[in-house]
Specification:
With about 120 residues, the protein is mostly beta strands. It contains no helices and 11 strands.
Length: about 120
């Protein structure tokens, strides 16, 4: 069973940096595609960025390109989302997700496993 747990979300001021973590505690291979999404009340889940199975550069939404970076530590079964130059528009619940395909995937339907989310609030 796959269990993804996000952490690191909190209240920060505009311009700050924050790193979110995603721990995979399941008994599955560490070889997977990983994605980060975010959601605000009343809106659909929005793609943030993703890494393919053997991808190190990733793909990102235009809104975060150049500010956010995804990385992973397969040995520790951890994923990370480094967020810099945060603005109030980045306020959302952030989710990590895992897919068995090659990826990277921007479509949330490609992902089979999701964490519970972590709240990021950016004050202006």
């Amino acid at each position: 069973q796959v269990q993804l747990v996000e952490s690191g979300g909190r209240l920060v001021q505009a311009g700050a940096s924050l790193r979110l973590s995603c721990a995979d505690s399941g008994r599955t291979s560490s070889d997977y595609a990983m994605g980060w999404f975010r959601q605000t009340p009343g809106k659909e889940r929005e793609f943030v960025g993703a890494l393919g199975r053997r991808d190190i550069t990733g793909r990102y939404a235009d809104s975060v390109k150049g500010r956010f970076t995804i990385s992973r530590d397969n040995a520790k079964k951890m994923g990370y989302l480094q967020m810099n130059s945060l603005s109030s528009e980045d306020t959302a619940v952030y989710y990590c997700a895992k897919a068995s395909g090659v990826g990277p995937f921007s479509n949330p339907d490609e992902y089979h496993y999701w964490g519970q989310g972590t709240q990021v609030t950016v004050s202006s």
